[in-house]
Amino acid sequence: ATGTEPPQVHKGVHEATRAAIGPRHLRTDRWWLAPALTAAGLLAFIVYSTWRAFANADYYAAPYVSPFYSPCLAENCEPMRSGPNWEIFGSWWGLSPALLILIFPLGFRLTCYYYRKAYYRGFWASPPACAVAEPHKKYSGETRFPLIMQNIHRYFFYAAVPVAGILTYDTVLAFRDEHYEWGHMGLGTLVFLVNIVLIWAYTISCHSCRHIIGGRLRHFSKHPVRYRLWGWVGKLNARHMQLAWASLFSVALADLYVYLVASGAFDDPRLF
Ligand code: FES
Asked: Which spans are transmembrane here (predicted)?
């Protein structure tokens, strides 16, 4: 050392203003379990959904269309008599049509406040858990590119609402049989029903939604309707993490169900 180096500036937990504690953390419980399970769960979904999104096959089994492929926006969609099929992208689009629509629900989940916490902890250890110092030397939070882009979450919420609306329409169409006769239900209809309830519950419980409904109001008493809605959204919002996982699982299950029926693994049991 020459003695002329600038003094080392410590950030985060090693900052001069923080208590000088030697060990990385003082937790004695299995704090690593939650981030490890989170990472495993997210990884499983990423692998499954990537395979299905690129598969470009077995996403339609009358009257069901996979939520990964709806609405279908390309000309190369399987001929379907179920679900919206808008050929906005012409014959030049040769890849899987799922890639066109999945951007929106994926962006919604990727920028979600809960998932951010989940994958920052699970994949990036930033921080690994409460009261466990992160291994990274620098910390700039979400103040710089690319993480500052997380602020567009609200706009993904706006996109997620019509997508949920379309999946609702698909669920209504599932009340038909394979010959498109109305007034029938199969096991798939139940799978779709559970999925759409969870998708809506997750979407409405969004923190951005809560702010849109009840934010920036000076007096709740002057906005009784918004206040009441805000209260309901708040109750769901308290369960946002659970709804994030439940809807992630249910949307994958709905897709898997369509895949199994479409690929001939089994026939959709008709309930009536
Ligand atoms: Fe999770 Fe908006 S905060 S979806």
From this structure: 31-51, 92-115, 155-176, 182-202, 243-262
